[in-house]
């Protein structure tokens, strides 16, 4: 299996890229993986920005319907959408000026990975920050 994002890139995104994380696919549904991962990110000091068509407030943070609607800089875009939609989100992350893109476990789009890296962003694919961040200690 190919690794998309080596351990050094994982560490850099989690510790050095910045603390504002837009979580695409995050809604108020507590049963979804995005909700649990966002909670872990918050516990590690990250500001979580929910991005979902419902634009709900989640975990105390106001939500936005799209990345383009967020009125402040975002450091990392964490993608919890189906692989068929993820490439479009990665392109939106580049357009929004994000520094890094993170595709969750099971989210794979090799063409989007290549485009995002070519645009100069750090990227991790098919890994989970909630699994990786406790390992950094």
How would you describe what is shown here?
With 137 residues, this protein is an alpha/beta fold. It has helices at 7-15, 33-43, 83-96, 110-118, 129-132, and strands at residues 20-24, 47-51, 76-79, 100-103, 122-124. A 5-stranded parallel beta sheet has the order 2-1-3-4-5, with helices on both faces. The protein is globular.
Alpha carbon gyration radius:
13 Å
Q: Choose one word for the global shape.
A: globular
Subunit arrangement of the protein: single chain
Mean pLDDT: 94
Figure out the total of helices.
5
Strand element count: 5
Q: What proportion of the residues form beta strands (DSSP E)?
A: 15-25%
Query: In angstroms, what separates the terminal alpha carbons?
Result: 26 Å
- The percent of residues in helical segments reads 25-40%
How can the largest sheet be summarized?
5 strands, parallel
Low-confidence stretches: none
Strand adjacency order, main sheet: 2-1-3-4-5
Order of helical and strand elements: HEHEEHEHEH
Which structural class do you get from the secondary structure elements? alpha/beta
